[in-house]
Amino acid sequence: MTFSVPVLVRGYELDTQGHLNHAVYHQYGEHARWELMRAAGISQDKFIASGVGAVVLESTIKYKRELRGGDEVTVTCVFDWKEGEKVFRFHQQIIKLDGTVSAEITVVAGAMDLTTRRLVAEPAEHFRGLAENPELLGL
Description:
By secondary structure, this protein is α+β, with helices and mostly antiparallel strands. The chain contains three helices and six strands.
């Protein structure tokens, strides 16, 4: 299941060439990931209260087409769980209204126990236990 959120490219997010600043792509991805979690019933407060925090271990962006101020985009987000792994992945796209893929983002993440400062062994099970709509998370 692919989750998505709309975003409008704002003027203050642009670089000196008038393109969306590279760091803002990461922010759009982060926004979509937290909106997906919220839609699944896991607010940031609920997640932290569970004694676990989200950690990004790697984030890769492939830039395909420029974005400029006023462009309207959709940011997609799909969880990718691998059984027996402490990490999971997010696959995301930033798509213009005409269907052009502007960027592809892949994030490797984990769920860190805030007391031991170690990754949770079965992150999918932790998410499943917190979620009201686990199907949105691919669970």
